[in-house]
Structure formats: C-alpha cells, structure tokens
Amino acid sequence: MRQVRELNVIIAGVGGQGQLFLSRIITETFLRLGVPSLVAETHGMSQRGGSVVVHVRIGNEVRAPTIPQKLADVMIGMELIEAARYVDYLRDRGVAIVNEKVIVPPGQNVKLRDTDLLAYLKEKPVELLTIKSSQRAVSLGAPLSANVHMFGAFIGLLESVEILGSGVDEVVKDILPRRLLDKNLLLYKLGKEDVEKELNKARAEEIKKFFAKNY
Amino acid sequence: MSLRRTLGIFSGKALLLGNEAIARGALEAGVGVAAAYPGTPSSEIIGSLSEVASDVGVYVEWSTNEKVAFELSWAAALSGVRAITAMKHVGLNVAADALMSSAYTGVEEGFVIVSADDPSMWSSQNEQDNRLYGLISYIPVFEPDNPGEAKELTKALFDFSARVKHPVILRTTTRLSHTRGPVELGPIPKPKTSGFFNPSPAHVLAPSNARVRRLELLKKFELIHRELSSLSFNKIYGDGRALVVAAGLSHAYVSEAISKLGLEDRVRVLKLVSVYPVPEEILVKAVDGVDRVVVIEELEPLVETQVRAVLHKKGVGVEVVGRELSERAYEMSLDRAEAILRRALNISTAISRSVATEKPSISIPPRPPVFCSGCPYRPLFFELRRTINQQKIKAVFSGDIGCYTLAYYPPYKLQDTCVEMGGSIGLANGFSVVLRDVVVISVIGDSTFYHAGIPALVNSVYNQHPQVVIVLDNMVTAMTGHQPSPATRVDGRYVPIENVIRGIGVDFVSVVDPYDLASVRREFLRAVEYVRSEKKTAVLVFRRKCALVALDEMREAEEEIVPYIVDLAKCVGCGICYNFFACPAITSREDRRASVDPELCVGCGACVPVCPVRAIQPSKPMDLSKTLKYWF
Hints:
The complex is a heterodimer. Chain A contains 8 helices and 6 strands; from the N terminus they run βαβββαβαβααααα. Chain A is of the alpha/beta class. In chain A, strands 2-3-1-4-5-6 form a 6-stranded mixed β-sheet, sandwiched between helices. The two termini of chain A are 12 Å apart. The model of chain A has no long low-confidence stretch (mean pLDDT 91). In chain B, the strands form 6 sheets. Chain B has a 7-stranded mixed β-sheet with strand order 3-2-4-5-7-6-12, with helices on both faces. Chain B has a 5-stranded mixed β-sheet with strand order 9-11-10-13-14, with helices on both faces. Chain B is globular and about 80 Å long. Classes of the chains: A alpha/beta, B alpha/beta. Strand 2 of chain A pairs antiparallel with strand 8 (179-184) of chain B.
C-alpha cells in the first residue's frame, strides 16, 4: 500500500450507533498494515443518544488528536442530521459516505425529512456517496451492525482511490468479532459493493484526483 | 485492542486509549493496589485494571468516593506497596483533604495520583485546571502528550515517587485520556501486594508533628525541583530565534502546527512534561540566544507564570508572551495552536484550506443526550411531570450528577439545580429553610447517594428539613460506564439503600418500581402530603436496573428481545408517546400517528401504559413477566 502521511476521517452519528467500534476496526486495520493512527473518542454524557463525533487521524505525520474544520478528507455519516451537522469538517471536494437514515431527536417536534437533509448535503462542495447501511443491517437480522456495512464502504473507497491495495480483506477477516462473523463479513462485502456503485455514479475521477493531490 | 487483550504481550505496539496506556504503565511498574471512584474522563484507568486484576494479581476496587479511594491507595503506598488512584478533576476536590496531608506524610513506595481534567467541559460541571493543585499541595505535576508517552511516563513516575518518597500527580485531559494511539508494550513484573507499616511521627499530623513536617516538606520539594532537571521527558529540539515552550498535551498540537506551517527552522521548542514545578536548568538552557519566548498551554497560565518568574530571577531579559495570545477558556486545537504561533511570530503563512463556513440553509436541531430506550428514569420523570402539572404542585427540584441530570431537558424539565456530587440533598436542606409554599424535592442516584448524599441526608433528618428525597436506584454507576456502586449486587452482596435510610431515622420510606406509573403517582403524592403536614424528610426509592445492564444480561442469556409496534388502526395521533414520554424509538409519522423504529426499540414495554388507547403492542406474542428477573 501507499505510504499514508495524513488521512483525516470524521465519524459522525448518534450515540449508540457504534462509532467507537467502527473507529477501532479502521485503526486496527491500518495498524496491521503498518500505519499508526490517533483517535479522539467521545465518551460520557454525549454517548446517551447524543450527537457523537469521533476524530480518526491515520498516518505517520499526525500528532494532534482532533481534526479542525475543513481538514477532514472523509466523513462517515452514520445518520443524516449528524452528517449535516459535521459536513463542514470536510475539505473542499472531500468525500462524505452517508447512511440514509434519520434518527429524530425525541421530544423536539423536528420536521426535517431525509429528502431535506440530502438536498442540504448536495449543496455542499463535497463528493456525496449515499448508502443504505441501516436497511442492509436490519434486513440481514443484525440491526446493530450497520457500522460494519459503513466500514466496508470506507475500505471500498480507499481501495478504489488506491490508498489501500489488495490484501485488506484478509486482515479484516481477522479483526471482525467472532460473534455474528458471517453476517458481518457479508455486510462488509455489501458495503464495498454499494460504495463502488455510488462511485460509478459520482465523479470517480474527481475523487481519485482529490486523494492523488493530497496524498 | 483492550488492555486485557495486551496482557500476554510484552513487546511490539498496540493501540490503546490514553487511560488504558496509563493502566498498562502502572502494571509494568509493578502496581499492587489501585482504587478510584469513576468519573469521565478518568474511568477507564481503574476500569481496565479491574478487568485484569485477577490475572495479574493486583488489588483493584471501585470505592464509594474519591477521598475513600485516595486514602486506600495512600495507605498501601505508606506500607511499601505501589499504588495508583485516578479521578476526574472535580473528584480531586473531594479528595483534596487527603491530598494535602499526603504531601506531609510522604510515602514508602511509588504513589501516582491521576487527575483527568476536562477542558471544554465535555462531561463536567466546570473547567478546572488541576495542575494548580501542585502549587497548593507541594506535589509535582506531570502531563504527557500522547498515549505512548503516557505509558512510559506512568512507569517512570512510580520509580520517581519511590525514589523521592513523595506522591506525584499525573495530569491528563479528555483529549489524552480518550485518545487511542500506538503504545510500545514492555514486560509486566509480578506485583508486590502486601506491605509493612512502620509507625513514625510523620504519619501522625498532630500540630506538634505537622510543624516539623511542614519544614521537611519545603526542603524535600526543593530537592524534587532540582531532580526534575534530569527528567528525560522534557526535551529541547529545533533551533531558531524564538523559543516555543509547549506544556503537556499542547505540545501535540503545537508540534504539528509547526510542521504544517513550515516553521521547523525558525523556532526552538521546549517540550515540558513536568509542568509544575518547571525545572530551571533546562529552561535557562532553552532560552539561551533567543529573543522571544512563546508559552503555549491549556487553561490557566501556570507554566507561563513560572517561566516569567525564573527568567526574572535569573536576570534573562527576553520577551515572554503567552495567555494574551488566545482565549483562556476551552481546550487546545490545531487551529488555536496555529493562530498563537502566527500571532506570536508575526507570520502570514497559514495551514492551507478554505475557511468558508456560511450559515446552514436548514436548521439543524440540537441533539442533547437523552435517556436510553428502556431507561427506568423516563417513565418516572414522565409521570412526575404529569402529576405535578395536573395537581398544580409548586416544587423546586434540587438535582444531582448522573444520567438523571438529563431530566433538565424538555419535555420533563425536572432539574432546577445540578451543581456537584451530593449537592441535591445539601442544597435542598437550605431551600427547605428559606423557601415558603413550595415543595422541596431532591433527586439523587444510588452511586451519588453513597458518594456524598448520606451526610446531607443525616443532616436533613436530624435538623428536621421538610423535603422529599428521590433516590434513583438503577443499581449501578450508569453514566460513567456501569462501574459497581454499593447498590450493585455482586454474588448477592450489596448495601440496601432503604436500610441505610431507615437507619438514619427516616420514618417515611417507600420503594417503588418506576415502570409502575400508578404507584409512582400514588407514592409521590403521599410523600408530598407527608412533608407538608409533618414538616419532616420523606424518601422515595425508585428501583429498576439500568436498561443497558438489563439488556446486556438478556442478550448474554440469548433471551429474545421483541420490538414493539403501533397498531395504526387504534392510534389517534395524540402525540403523548413521542412528545411527552419521548422515547428515542418512537417517532411521529407525517399523519401524526406514532411509529416505532425497530433499530432503536429494545422491547421494554415501558411505553404501553403511556398510550391512552393502548395502541402500542409487541410485534409478536410475548410474556413480559418472563424478562422481569433481568430488571431487578
């Protein structure tokens, strides 16, 4: 694989969606490939169904634990309201991988629909890739594994822009938890396929150029 | 990777949380005793040690509060056993009495006190810079800048503390404690867990002895100060006309900002890990030949003040800048480090990126944390709010620290104060003295009750303060990650709250299941009536396990969890379930009727009695009473 100097990933979602687990399998994958990372996690109060953002910084030149606005290369948006809240962390032309799922904050009479949020994200100067991770996970009978589908999508993106080479699947097989392994491996594979379809629809060449320019 | 999974590995790198790295460092230093009361962001230090305690043979306990935990570990260190205690910044306030005296007694073996501060107040009531405790206690303070260094430093501090026979403070912040990064693993020796206590006047701080110890302490602290000059964690690197002094975690941001701005050949850096007291020798060496000193640190200008004092004393006439270049409040960031460097060094280059942040074209709703699906506090606060509204009860809710603080938010709005651990009953004592024509109600969780609620309740009973005390017993310290409280059943062993309360002399004690809305209402009204007529203290204990614990145990036992659904033919769209009960799993459809999200529903059934037309039902036939055992 290519030497990674600095790859900044924002994971945004609602507390309880498994952001910490997602960040751990990402960094463990890179560590096994010889690349260190720093992850600033969110614990405590904000985990109780609150807005949660995890800063994942991969690469040999990373020192600071958090990513400032407009310095993230990829955002993994696990929920649409949270994706909208944190989308400005992305550099111009950075990539947003977004799960088409809305979790309405309870008791606030919120009228936002997924279509409003998607339209908002489309206005932004970022490359938007939408996938249906929650739907995939629920239909496979593993509702808590939407994050594994998103993980597959993230890995699929990095493979297609050649930051990751082949051989990642072997590492992943070893990292995913033994519990529900078959379903998780299937979700991982589906995540990769789903993001590739989106990439073909989106401006794949532009995205490649973005990563080539920055890395 | 968790600390547990690294146990058998003695070389190579693992990804550990800052807190786990500190725990690993303690193990590699041969720690024998560890004790703490949980508090974000400190909890994973003792938490991860407790997971490996029996494998390694270390004594680890969750104590009732920080002072108790401090004293337990201090006694171990006094008896020649290496010890660690860890707490959040405000926890050290609770243990401050012990902290001060520990400097007077000194220790026989390594004693590391971890203070995990929370700049930006991600999970705290205040922003407090505990490096300042070093100043008042005469205990040296150290702060690392990444998990790998945190492990090495913890290990080194045990040796340092043992050598100078003095406690040390290891200070971290949220962004170190909760940052995961590579840590180099080393060997773990077999810990020494039993000691020997040698009686000495140094341990009896009667005034005649304390006066002697005070002079000893001042002498010893000078010695410690000199020793710090040889601490290898403090480093000088790079060269230029300006010196950047970067303290603790700030160094991580500063070093990256320097390389991003291409300033490597314009500045010399003094990376400081010993933040109090600042060693003089290395500082004097670092300022040699520079014409400007920039001090970069989080929160209070502690290092800056010391740098100014040392340079003044040594007659070094170089300009020092620091706190005036950035805000005092909130945590460091790459942006902030960059801005300080640019201002201090008068440079025009910037880290390249666009900075356009126009106002969002849609309004993004805030998402404060909420009670989890299944949380026993939700039906309780729902029913209390409804009863208070319907009966037009004027009440002041004196709240406390825990998940129930979330009842402050709509739709419940049942926390009028939230100040510090145990403050609920304490403030209620005072409110009941000066407020007329209102019912004073304090709300406190089981862990907080044992932590600091009991003295205030004794006071309330003895001095006859009319207040309703609501104890929320979910049988665990939930907010910080389910550490045991004295109410947690461990092999059937626990301290029953109602026994304590009756023992104190409360005549009105009632234990209620918060899912049982009719009983909640009845007992609450009865307690209010008792307080009004008898002018005494009444206590209601609402008991049901934290839903996250109950559900974990159900999943563990492979008990089927059946989500609920809304019978749309029955639902009238009144909105009580999604607007006032406000379970995150229940949302409103476009036509105002309710809908249950199967991804979020945990099948607890708490919403069933909330619906006036009984439209919410299990998605398939099930017997709720079969799962009752998991909840109590």
